Amino acid sequence: MNTTSTTNSPASVDNQILDDNQTSAAMDAVLVANNISKRYSQGDLSVDVLKSLSLTINRGDRIGIIGSSGSGKSTLLHLLGGLDKPSQGDVHLAGQNLAKLSQRARGLLRNKHLGFVYQFHHLLPEFTALENVSMPLMIRKDSVKHANEKAAHLLERVGLGERLRHKPSELSGGERQRAAIARALVTDPQVVLADEPTGNLDEKTADHVYELMLELNQESATSFLIVTHDSRLANRMDTVLTLTHGTLNT
After folding, report:
1. Quick one: pLDDT band at residue 195, thresholds 50, 70, 90?
2. pLDDT of res. 185
3. What angle, rounded to 10 degrees, do the helices at 144-157 and 173-185 form?
4. Residues 31 and 92: beta-carbon distance below 8 Å
5. Is residue 1 part of a domain?
6. pTM score, two decimals?
7. Which of 94, 103, 131, 141 is such that its CA lies 20 to 30 A from the CA of 165?
8. Which of 41, 128, 39 is nearest to 89 (CA)?
9. Is residue 19 part of a domain?
10. Helix orientation angle between 103-113 and 10-18, rounded to the nearest 10 degrees
11. Sign of CA dihedral 148, 149, 152, 158
């Protein structure tokens, strides 16, 4: 796989990321992990959580990863999302090697190409649904008008058009998670990484949330990587992998 070279200047790297639309659009693979391993060490004790794991996510892919608690699912998502660095191997997002970027550059790249959905919605309690969803665009320095219009459109799309001014405490569990999905999609990411996104929901609400994610995948060609312990939900993806003993298996 061809990767874009980077310079030693963080500013140059940042500018390169902001101008990489043409390069990124030409790539089929938007997120690639090459032989990544993750080892945690404390004193004489070391634990290998992930072992020489490789994964390619192409545009529009729907991938489910099943694993029991403690199997390394969250660790894998942290590495893929550039929130942590592998002990070995590398991760490329939109052609950029995350390990070679400055912290600021990685943040810019994440904001541009990735969306995150977690088991806990992580909405900020003091802000309304509209403000929570528009925040990634505000961080990107979009205008308030554009950010609010885009956020309102996404909230309408996920069935929360009447709840724009409500704070998280005024929303149900399913509504909060739908707002979190809208927030993940507001930047038009190429890939959404979801960590047990329905883990706190009842079965009926979980089904509605998954149906919404599948619809959005089909409409926008956004890739979804969902990690879960629930095989029933994972099996609704096009590809299902199992994470056991630090490796991925079909």
Report:
1. confident
2. 84
3. 130
4. yes
5. no
6. 0.77
7. 141
8. 39
9. yes
10. 10
11. negative
